[in-house]
Amino acid sequence: MAGTAGTPGTPRVLRAMNDRTALDLLLEHGPLSRTRIGKLTGLSKPTASQLLARLEAAGLVLATGTTEGRPGPSAQLYEVNPAAAHAAGLDVTPQRIRAAVADITGRTVGHYELPTPGRRPATSVVQQVTDALDGAVKAAGLSRSDIHRLVIGTPGAFDPNTGRLRYASHLPGWHSPTLLGELAAALPMPFEYENDVNLVALAEQRLGAARDHTDFVLLWNQEGLGAALVLGGRLHRGWTGGAGEVGFLPVPGAPLVRQVTRANSGGFQELAGAQAVPGIARELGVTDIPQGPYTETAAALLERAATSPLDGTPHHRFLQTYATRLATGLASLVSVLDPELVVLSGTALTSGGEVLRALIQDELEELAAPRPRLVVGDVREHPVLRGALESALATTRDEVFDTSR
Description:
Layout: H1 11-29, E1 32-33, H2 34-41, H3 45-57, E2 61-66, E3 76-80, E4 86-92, E5 96-103, E6 108-115, H4 125-139, E7 147-154, E8 157-158, E9 165-166, H5 179-186, E10 191-195, H6 196-207, E11 216-221, E12 225-231, E13 234-235, H7 260-263, H8 267-272, H9 277-283, H10 294-306, H11 314-337, E14 341-345, H12 347-350, H13 353-367, E15 373-376, H14 383-400
Parallel strand pairs: 4-7, 7-10, 11-14, 14-15
Antiparallel strand pairs: 1-3, 2-3, 4-5, 5-6, 8-9, 11-12, 12-13
Helix pairs in contact: 2-3, 4-5, 6-14, 9-11, 10-11, 11-13
């Protein structure tokens, strides 16, 4: 029926659209005056004043300071109310669960890390999740009921057809067919789950090297080797959630790995995963290989090699060989997808910096007909967790900022 509340084009819907535009501008630019909001939105001064009064009454914006010190009379500034809502994210690995809480502006206000070593979890997965979440919530000075939404990032992916975790046999306790129901019963807020590498791609698209790009591949190399595929602006997850599990990809130069899910590895992982890096360096005459976890060893070796003279030294041969191995698997990806951009992420890629990136780019142009641009990822600090927070915040903002409700 024309003219009813909520019909597109009615004053209520138009007001809500203007409200959301103003809130997004405040998030992007920080504190703004009424005049500046009016100019950016195209609204008249009276309409901008009504909008700000409405948002202030709804608890979505705060009056904060003035424009003193600038030419002309001072003006009241407004900002998004950080306490309007909070969201949380979890980054799950076999060794630990990292949790964080962010306010509606995206600022992290609480962080917690829960060690979870061992093949058999001493406590249930549900208990681990709630303990990690509670640690971050407590650090933020909040309670569970203050969290609007939670996003959980894990290796592998939950198959939407079965609700069970696949492609991550190394994650103990997470494969129960009843897990998602148990989590739903234990958590007071809505939650989603997402593949960890997909979340890194989301972080790069929102905050980093893939901003303004709608077609890109993110290659991740850290604890495992994987990829995220963003096609037409959307994550492509595949029928069972396994799109981008490129560690299982058979590649030239590596023996065929059979029963890949049981082995939790495949040709590309064996050829170019972080665990292969120390062996490549050793074979090519690099000495003084650090001891420790393979991810840390790989990062240290790559960082040292990338800052060493590249004139036929063992470090140069090591980086060149590693770049060839990475380009071997990437060639299959870009030949099928033809992306505009490839983002290199994870410490076994970013530690090689621009030197490694350029070597991979050169090799890829020899091995594949499409020639996407390669860039090193910008989101370096806890990228899986940052992506989980960005995912949770996007949905939270859509709900909290909708003033037509």
